[in-house]
Write a structure and sequence with these properties.
Two copies of one chain form a homodimer. Chain A is built from twelve helices and four strands. Chain A is α+β, with helices and mostly antiparallel strands. Chain A has two domains: 76 residues, Glutaredoxin (3-Layer(aba) Sandwich), CATH 3.40.30; 107 residues, Glutathione S-transferase Yfyf (Class Pi), Chain A, domain 2 (Up-down Bundle). The first copy, chain A, has a four-stranded mixed sheet with strand order 2-1-3-4, covered by helices on one side. The interface between A and B is medium-sized, with 20 and 20 residues.
Chain lengths: 243, 243
């Protein structure tokens, strides 16, 4: 059986759980607590030197990280149901779309980390904070931790992030959905899966007003269809806010 | 025939030219002059709203951007010679490797832009610079232009970039090459192609001392083998320095 190191609220983890659920694949769940920096712990770094979740351990012990890569691997090795287009050009568009959505993650973090991450990080002493930051390899993530711990994002920054998600995600999806029910047309694919964790957060907190049938009618219908899929319940994409 | 919008010195363009050359595919060449910001011109943005090269125009008029995506598309549509591993896990590793190398581009830019980009950008007046920056959508690239035009990267920054390329690229490649001639083993692949433009620059300017048989013997041998491939000459990966 697969072993998945993941977080319930981690966007990339949510994508992989969705993909596994669509394929009907079971996995042994190992939770990594990001607020405890478990992804930067020596034990986890032994499994994944990149210090990121999700991490999928295959049955033969080899492992894969990076949600887009994991999803495409799962689709290549478990064909039913197919989660990529049959057409090479559309597969290329799928890969660029995933990459594009990945590039928007900074805008999501501004909202996401204000919850459980902030609850923990604001309690750290300066010495603790400095010690924790030492283990974070990426400059962008160090900055995000620092901001979360000491200098919460301003209303202007939150609005800018909101705008980028509207233009880069909602408006683009609205245009893509003119061609069919799903982002790449008739077949539900990893392109749709890639957007789900973002849309979930936009719908529940970031810009619910943009998710109405009046503002983005096709995205609104897509989101209803996504939530109606049995895999959505299995993947456990729960609310972010609350305890 | 394909039409390729590209730059001779652009790393991503060099990857796509290498891939086309390995496949023996001809293309109509359209040069985009980055120093003239032609990639942010209204004419080019009509072709690619993302404002990046390379851009491959297919015979039916559709287009693709992003070098990794283009190379994989070319391999899916022109099977001979194959440039991806047959094994799904190795294909996943290939995609993560390309992504990893992509993430190092900022360290290459510090050296690359000090040449022709700086020659042009340092001549701009403050008003011209401000006007040019307005057209650059990415924050990272705006910063790179600003630094190139007004505040050249320091020796410390250059050394830090050099170190990151050594650790993230050369040391990792040395380990990967323990398994075979090429980065993913026996078959030359897009994983190798992805590294070529970086190694070219490391070898000619950034850290030639790290490219010796004494320092990185397997990378040294790999680089000799790469340059001996007929496709390398066809792809025209020329020197960066000089006029």
């Amino acid at each position: 059986m697969y072993v998945l190191y993941h977080g319930w609220r981690s966007s990339a983890s949510r994508r992989v759980r969705l993909c596994l659920a669509e394929k009907g694949l079971a996995f042994e769940s190992r939770i990594i607590d990001l607020t405890k920096m478990e992804h930067h712990s020596p034990a986890f770094l032994k499994l994944n030197p990149n210090g990121v979740i999700p991490l999928l351990i295959l049955e033969d012990g080899r492992s894969l990280y990076e949600s887009g890569t994991i999803c495409e691997y799962l689709d290549e090795t478990h064909r039913d149901p197919p989660l990529r287009p049959d057409d090479a050009f559309q597969r290329a568009e799928m890969r660029n779309w995933i990459r594009h959505v990945d590039g928007l993650i900074g805008n999501l973090i501004i909202f996401n980390w204000a919850h459980s991450m902030a609850k923990v990080a604001t309690q750290w002493s300066d010495a603790e904070l400095a010690e924790k930051l030492k283990n974070v390899p990426s400059k962008e993530r160090r900055e995000a931790w620092l901001r979360t711990a000491r200098k919460p994002y301003t209303d202007e920054e939150r609005q800018e992030a909101r705008d980028k998600l509207r233009i880069g995600l909602l408006d683009r999806m609205e245009a893509m959905l003119a061609e069919g029910t799903w982002l790449l047309g008739a077949r539900y694919s990893i392109a749709d899966i890639a957007a789900v964790p973002f849309i979930k957060r936009i719908d529940e907190e970031i810009s619910p007003d943009e998710m109405t049938a009046a503002r983005h009618p096709r995205v609104h219908a897509w989101w209803q269809a996504i939530q109606a899929r049995p895999a959505f319940a299995v993947a456990n994409i729960g609310p972010f806010t609350g305890s």
